[in-house]
Amino acid sequence: MSGQDENMGSRVEDSVYAEKSSDLWEKGFVKYLTRQNLREKDSGYDALLKKYVEEEGIEEESDQQYLRMKINGDIVIQSGGDAEDVSAQGTGSWLSDTDTVSITSVTEGGYALAIDRFDEEKKIEEKVTFNAKVVKVNYENDLVKIEYIQDGTDAKMVLAQTVLVTVPLGVLQSGDIEFSPTLPKRQQDAIDSMRVGVLDKLIMYWDDYAMESAPNFQANWDEVSKKEWLQLITPETETSEFWTCFFNTRRFNGLHTMTAWIGGSDAKAMELMEDQAILDIAVANLKTMFGSDVAPPTKFMITRWFTDEFSKGSYSFRSVDLPFDNVAKKISESVKDKVFFAGEHTSDAGWAGTAVGAFETGDMAAKAMARSIDDEVLVSIHHEVA
């Protein structure tokens, strides 16, 4: 959605968007990418797009902006990595895949609901220690010693036959958790070589009073209320990829809610800004798209996954020249059948970067741990703790 002319009808926008999508994207860059991936070494999307624009003689700035916008939305935001760093060979199939990802939800849903249904009797919750920061995993002896700090107190310790490490890749790379002995070099090198992407969101909500104060905004939004993704293309390169990708959730919840997405180094830079400055940029872009009377949202929320102490990034991504699945497999290897690893970054089955990958690898690791546990040793642990 360009929004350069407030009077531009959605029908005209749809036809222009569809024509550009077909000629420049599906029939153009995506096919070009397929040919390049078959005969050349791996490359990032920035280099490939530059080459494509030069070879095809694409001179119109709006066409170049459209292509950059598509890469930003389909690659940078999806992976969390900059276009120059994301592997075209490793992710090219995402662009040409005819299957679509469905948007699913449940009433009053979210991960909390899934956990509650999995543990309806709250038996698991009773065994979880909350607000505990693990600082050391010592697997030198027969039993693993896990040291942790809870609510700022002195370090505490628990003993176990096995331990499952599921912290995000960014935390694993940071060294905040000490392993003693150090992890095998093969595994540590794999951990260090994988790239962590950053995806952040600005979630906005307007109540009825706010929308009544902005009739043009409401009318223009009504025209595209059933469109899920809205993108801003501007004449200037500098403003084409910063808070310009919006997910419109009105068709799902009936509310005036919209989520702005940002990825890669733009997301890292954004996280250092004050909330109000961030919101001002997003609202300014919405004014370009919907009209000058766009009102600030009644409520908003901003994620900051890169600067989050317990995340240090969003999830892994397939970077240039990295054999991702092989690296993920090395990270997932258990150490002496005592230290096990799981998480999206250990998925070598195509589900890296997703909750599915985290769940499946956790399930596999749990089964492997169960096979390695000695019941007699387990009894002795209980006696020792008691």
Describe the structure.
This protein is an alpha+beta fold. It folds into three domains: 10-96; 124-194 and 319-385, FAD/NAD(P)-binding domain (3-Layer(bba) Sandwich), CATH 3.50.50.60; 197-302, Alpha-Beta Complex (Polyamine Oxidase, Chain A, domain 2). Helices cover 44% and strands 15% of the residues. It has 15 helices and 13 strands. The protein has helices at 10-39, 45-56, 61-79, 88-96, 111-118, 169-174, 185-193, 208-212, 215-223, 250-253, 264-270, 275-290, 324-331, 355-372, 375-385, and strands spanning 132-138, 144-150, 156-160, 163-165, 178-180, 195-197, 199-205, 229-231, 245-248, 257-263, 299-302, 315-317, 339-341. The strands form four sheets. A five-stranded antiparallel sheet has the order 8-9-10-7-11. It has a four-stranded mixed sheet with strand order 3-2-1-5. A hairpin with a 5-residue loop joins strand 1 and strand 2. Helix 1 crosses helix 3 (61-79) and helix 7 (185-193) crosses helix 13. The longest helix is centred in the N-terminal third of the chain and has 30 residues, at 10-39. The protein is globular.
